[in-house]
């Protein structure tokens, strides 16, 4: 490999690490404000400034920053191509960090126009990402599979535009604006993106005799299902309740079938794998994906009017701080050690026999990472229960446990970086 290619790879590894470590920092801020909002959660005060700040620190500061950084690495690697521009990636990074700061700041100082500016920065950052990925697409060997990922981005733009509208005091879908905003963001954007990318990543991580993992059928189902759900919610806001209920129910059915199809394909892929040993972190990624199906099903039940408002809020917290945090944290525990190992040992250092080079699977401390993932999930469950039951002690305990799990995850990353 030429020196130029080596430098380019090192730079690409570095930018993804910058994104992901920044996201971990925002996650800590999220849990801090979640502790501040624990009492409001138990009392149903959904517009509490600390709660709004915590949710957006998680969604934008943690989940979105990590996902954007991961896409700069995953798309060219998993779909076999070359990233168009690392410099654009840093421009995008600056914009998304500013947006991630502006959104919670606007809520905390009660100047929601600041939050609206943050939303516009996120749109600009994502447009740059799409341009960068669009140019990268020209070099990919698996263009069709990569294009399927891009099909999830409209859900993101719907989410942000609705958020900006609400920050400016406008509610284009009336009382349905906030539910549309949350659903298109949490399920339509993040969950759908995880479902679209996970089969490709698992096919990249684990060699198998099963060839059906990368088929596009499940992806089309979840995309069509979520489009139908959001269309149903929009019709409901327009007063066409009879039509909207059936459309939303059909959309959720399609979505859950598509999700289940992904899980079945993953099971068959791992069952027919060529090597019997499975890296420990992959089992935790799978655990998050399988555990997410009942969480999404509960969200569907809640959106169709099957749960009271406090339990619907519980589903939101469980989706965010349980399902999404688990999956993103588990994927990072797979990706970051690889990037660190390659950056430190992958280009010639491994030939130095005078020092012991740690194996890739040894980089991330296993027990500490597992305890952290489990602790964050347990914290999310306590938060959800406290919110649903109206118990402040439970919500505070959940926030405190989630914070402790974040500290432990940070220590695991520190140990990994010292190896």
Brief descriptors of the model:
single chain; 419 residues; mainly alpha; 0% strand; globular
Query: End-to-end distance, in Å?
Result: 25 Å
Biggest β-sheet strands, sense, barrel: none
The whole-angstrom Rg is 21 Å
State the secondary-structure class. Answer: mainly alpha
Low-confidence stretches are none
Beta-strand fraction estimate: under 5%
Number of helices: 14
Number of strands: 0
Fraction of residues in H or I helices: over 70%
Sequence of secondary-structure elements: HHHHHHHHHHHHHH
Mean pLDDT: 89
Overall 3D shape? globular
Summarize the structure.
It is built from 14 helices and no strands. The chain has helices spanning 3-36, 38-43, 49-78, 86-108, 112-137, 143-150, 153-167, 177-205, 217-237, 241-271, 280-306, 309-345, 366-389, 392-418.
Would you mind describing this structure in some detail?
The chain is an all-alpha fold and about 425 residues long. Helices cover about 80% and strands about 0% of the residues. Helix 1 packs parallel to helix 4. The longest helix has about 35 residues. It is globular, with a radius of gyration of 21 Å. The mean pLDDT is about 90.
Reconstruct the topology from this structure.
Blueprint: H1 3-36, H2 38-43, H3 49-78, H4 86-108, H5 112-137, H6 143-150, H7 153-167, H8 177-205, H9 217-237, H10 241-271, H11 280-306, H12 309-345, H13 366-389, H14 392-418
Helix pairs in contact: 1-3, 1-4, 1-12, 1-14, 3-4, 3-5, 3-8, 3-12, 4-5, 5-7, 7-8, 8-9, 8-10, 8-11, 8-12, 9-10, 10-11, 11-12, 12-13, 13-14
């Amino acid at each position: 490999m030429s020196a130029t290619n080596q430098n380019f790879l090192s730079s690409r590894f570095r930018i993804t690490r910058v994104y992901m470590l920044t996201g971990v920092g925002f996650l800590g801020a999220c849990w801090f404000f979640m502790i501040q909002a624990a009492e409001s959660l138990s009392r149903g005060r959904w517009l509490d400034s600390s709660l709004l700040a915590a949710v957006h620190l998680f969604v934008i500061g943690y989940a979105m920053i990590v996902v954007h950084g991961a896409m700069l690495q995953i798309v060219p690697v998993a779909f076999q191509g070359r990233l168009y521009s690392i410099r654009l990636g840093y421009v995008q990074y600056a914009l998304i960090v500013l947006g991630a700061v502006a959104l919670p700041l606007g809520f905390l100082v009660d100047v929601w126009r600041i939050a609206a500016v943050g939303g516009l920065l996120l749109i600009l950052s994502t447009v740059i990402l799409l341009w960068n990925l669009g140019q990268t697409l020209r070099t990919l060997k698996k263009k069709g599979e990569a294009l399927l990922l891009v099909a999830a981005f409209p859900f993101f733009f719907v989410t942000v535009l609705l958020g900006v509208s609400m920050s400016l005091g406008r509610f284009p879908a009336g009382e349905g604006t906030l539910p549309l905003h949350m659903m298109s963001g949490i399920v339509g954007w993040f969950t759908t993106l995880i479902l679209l990318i996970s089969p490709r990543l698992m096919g990249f991580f684990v060699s198998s005799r099963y060839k059906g993992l990368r088929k596009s059928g499940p992806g089309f189902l979840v995309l069509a299902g979520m489009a139908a759900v959001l269309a149903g919610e929009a019709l409901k806001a327009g007063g066409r309740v009879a039509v909207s209920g059936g459309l939303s129910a059909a959309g959720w059915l399609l979505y859950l079938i598509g999700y289940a199809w992904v899980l079945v394909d993953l099971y068959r892929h791992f069952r027919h794998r060529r090597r019997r040993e499975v890296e420990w972190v992959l089992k935790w990624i799978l655990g998050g994906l399988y555990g997410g199906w009942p969480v999404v099903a509960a969200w569907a039940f809640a959106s169709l009017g099957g749960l009271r408002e406090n339990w619907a809020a519980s589903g939101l917290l469980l989706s965010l701080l349980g399902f999404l945090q688990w999956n993103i944290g588990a994927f990072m525990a797979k990706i970051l050690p690889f990037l660190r190992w390659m950056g430190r040992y992958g280009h010639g250092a491994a030939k130095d026999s005078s020092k012991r080079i740690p194996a890739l699977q040894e980089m991330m401390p296993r027990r500490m990472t597992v305890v952290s993932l489990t602790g964050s999930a347990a914290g999310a469950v306590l938060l959800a229960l406290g919110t649903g039951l109206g118990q402040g002690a439970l919500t505070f305990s959940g926030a405190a446990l989630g914070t402790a799990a974040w500290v432990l995850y940070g220590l695991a990353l520190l140990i990994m970086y010292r190896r």
